[in-house]
Design a protein that fits this description.
- The protein contains six helices and seven strands, in the order H-E-H-E-E-H-E-E-E-E-H-H-H.
- Strand 3, helix 3 and strand 4 form a beta-alpha-beta unit.
- A seven-stranded mixed beta sheet has the order 2-1-3-4-6-5-7, with helices on both faces.
- By secondary structure, the protein is α/β, with parallel strands linked by helices.
- About 20% of the residues have low confidence.
- Bound molecules: S-adenosylmethionine (SAM).
- The site of S-adenosylmethionine has 20 residues, from loops.
Amino acid sequence: MSQRVSGYQRQADDEYETPAWVAHALVPYLPAGCRHFWDPANGPASKIARALRQKGLKVTATGDDFLGRAILPRLDIDGILTNPPYGPNGRLACAFIAHALELVPIVAMLLRVDFDSGKTRLPLFGDCSSFSSKIVLLDRIVWFERPGAAGPSDNHAWYIWDGRHSGPPTIKYARRATSPPLLGWGTWWRPDKFTNLSGCTRSMSQRALDRGENKPSPWTGDGCCFGSDEAKKRRLILWLKRRLRLLSDLYLAGRLWASRTAKAMAS
Ligand SMILES: C[S@@+](CC[C@H](N)C(=O)[O-])C[C@H]1O[C@@H](n2cnc3c(N)ncnc32)[C@H](O)[C@@H]1O
């Protein structure tokens, strides 16, 4: 995977605070029946615990040396979930995963999207029978808001291990909850706010606009001019056409239903 220099300075002790949306994106994929999680890398300003509590989960957060802990801080903990420190060559993160799997059957870790690629990491991923799923985040994480800085270059995923899992791991894709669906029902009532004609989502195109760029769409090659009057007009026309198509579909379905009902009543 190609990488570019993001301009972010590596933080001492990997002091990256996870934005709330990243934790929220994981919630629908957590193994059923798990309500109490432990975040063992709860830094000074950790947001994961708070974000998950907002979603009704119970979270115990600790900040002392996780690798030195041989027992759970609470007996009723179902799983361990964190954004671990990476350490040199990701070795600390690997140690976190291995230690977590020794303590509980359910583990969720936020890692770079290619973290499972290394051959030496097979025992934790490809060769690990409880590695159940990888939830790829389609929106990139902005770790530090810095006006004018280039956008983040890394992609991330939640990796989930579940002791009850059998078979190969599955891959799923999650979006930031505030991101609009791609040409879904959400586009019907606020077309100007959501998708443009070429299918660029607001977050992508808005970011491009914020950077003063007019990027070509990866889907159609059209100009992705989200905010221009021309684009707004095209979106409005598309939205009206879809509305009309829906109305005509409803009308046809209604006629079909009426004729079937009439036939049924006559026979
Ligand atoms: C990437 S940050 C994540 C912080 C927080 N969990 C969040 O997501 O907002 C990793 C955290 O792990 C902490 N850390 C580093 N080594 C650790 C260790 N051995 N045991 C527990 N926490 C550690 C760092 O201080 C840092 O706060």
